[in-house]
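User: Hey, my collaborator sent me this sequence without any context and asked if I could get a structure. I don't really work with proteins. Can you help?
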Amino acid sequence: MTAMDEIALEAQSRMVKSLEALHANFNTLRTGRANAALLDRIEVDYYGDKIMLNQISSVTVPEPRQLLIKPYDRNDVKAIVSALSSSNIGINPINDGTSIRLVLPPLTEERRHDLVKVAKKYADESKVAIRNIRHEHIDLLSDDEYSEDLKKRIVADIQKVYDEKVLEIDAAFKEKETEIMTL
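Assistant: No problem. I've predicted the 3D structure and written it out in structure-token form, which is a compact way to encode the shape of the chain:
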């Protein structure tokens, strides 16, 4: 087996990043259990700027269906409650003055199916992204800089990496689907 060419390695690196983005997207989907990653994309209006929630507070999971948010500065509680209320997570924050609790209601069967559809959409978008990466890198071989044999080998390397990443995406989706559908 020969070493992979620079173009194939670059394609592999970008495909790995696409897979990491997929996992980050999956972490924002709500399952039956509380997960601090659910709040990773919540932005809080912090003195006129938008700041990520996890930068101005700590988020813990005291119980399986509950998140506890403790702001580093007590004056930020109202801004955090406002950001949570206007987000699309569908959970009403409970403000006790110094911290905020989010009690996750059990998911209905219909909501579980909707979340699986969202996860499928994320997986499909990830597949499109790596397919585009594959095409971009194969197109780089169109000039006369490479011999035909070398082009074939590089294309085969890129295709092999692509196939591996598609299988990883499918496995990640199946795992997330099982997690969402488990009561």
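In plain terms: The radius of gyration is 22 Å. You can pass these tokens on to your collaborator as they are.
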